[in-house]
Amino acid sequence: MKNNKPDKKGRKKNFVKLPVYPGGSAYFKRFIYDNLIYPEEALEKGIEGSVYVSYTVDDRGVVIDARITRGLGYGCDEEALRLIRLLRYEKVKNRGIIVKSNMRARIDFHLKNKNTAGLRVTYQPKQPDKLTGNVKKKERTDVKYHYTISLPPSEDHDDRS
């Protein structure tokens, strides 16, 4: 609970300090983005959306309780809880008082390139002749070429005879 009433000099007083994620919300979002592992079941079924999580952080900055308030299923809820439990907030000193803070977060699950099909082709130049070990002067064996071809989504056609 914060009390932000101004004192006699017009300054706001904060009596209770809340835990803050190191680096702020930008680092929080980056942590989630870097550590999110899309659940296999959700990937196979093309599930996208957001999972809302409520959790409690103690005065040491440790998440001690996490629960789903609105989930997606297909493994997304479990992944969101795993990510939240990995979080470590900055320690908070409140004049010897142990304070637990309730927090909320939204974890987004979005598939990349969901409307395109891709084809990946790898080309590698010829290897040296096993018998002679000779390679033509212009051929290089340490080079690989990769091509990714994105195809537009196929439209469903109604084939009526």
Question: What's the short version?
Answer:
This protein is of the alpha+beta class and 161 residues long.
Account of the 3D structure:
By secondary structure, the protein is an alpha+beta fold. The chain has two domains: 25-109, TonB (TolA/TonB C-terminal domain), CATH 3.30.2420; 117-151, no CATH class. It has three helices and five strands. Strands 2-1-3 form a three-stranded antiparallel beta sheet, covered by helices on one side. It has a two-stranded antiparallel sheet with strand order 4-5. The protein is elongated and about 75 Å long. The model is unreliable at 114-119 and 151-161 (pLDDT under 50).
User: Helix- and strand-based class?
Assistant: alpha+beta
Residue fraction in strands: 15-25%
Shape by Cα distribution: elongated
Write the CATH fold name of the largest domain. TolA/TonB C-terminal domain
Which segments are poorly predicted (pLDDT under 50) over 5 or more consecutive residues?
114-119, 151-161
- The termini sit apart by 70 Å
Number of strands: 5
The number of helical segments is: 3
Q: Which sequence of strands runs across the widest sheet? A: 2-1-3
User: What percent of the residues sit in helical stretches (DSSP H or I)?
Assistant: 10-25%
Comma- or semicolon-separated keywords:
single chain, about 160 residues, alpha+beta, TolA/TonB C-terminal domain, 2 domains, three-stranded antiparallel sheet, two-stranded antiparallel sheet, elongated, disordered C terminus
